[in-house]
């Protein structure tokens, strides 16, 4: 999951990130396992933070912990 997301995140658009946010929420993917993406290259890190925003919009309780 982490590698798959890392590969597409740097070139992702908002539609792709919303799809990933949906997957994270519906599959119960734990966010802490994805945190290394925040420390990647600048494009990946920025889009990862946008993805976290999309997750918050989809279901804020996922990000709460």
Descriptive overview:
The protein has about 60 residues and is mainly α. It is about 65% helix and about 0% strand. It is globular and about 30 Å long. The protein starts with a helix and ends with a helix.
Keywords:
65 residues; 4 helices; globular
Q: What's a quick, concise take on this entry?
A:
This protein is mainly α and 65 residues long.
Radius of gyration: 11 Å
Assess the beta-strand content as a share of residues: under 5%
Count the helices. How many? 4
Series of H and E elements: HHHH
- Mean pLDDT reading: 92
- Helix-residue proportion: 55-70%
Reported for the largest beta sheet, the result is: none
Could you give the distance between the termini? 20 Å
Spans where pLDDT lies below 50 across 5 or more residues: none
- Which class of secondary structure composition applies to the elements? mainly alpha
Q: How many DSSP E strands?
A: 0
Give the overall shape: globular
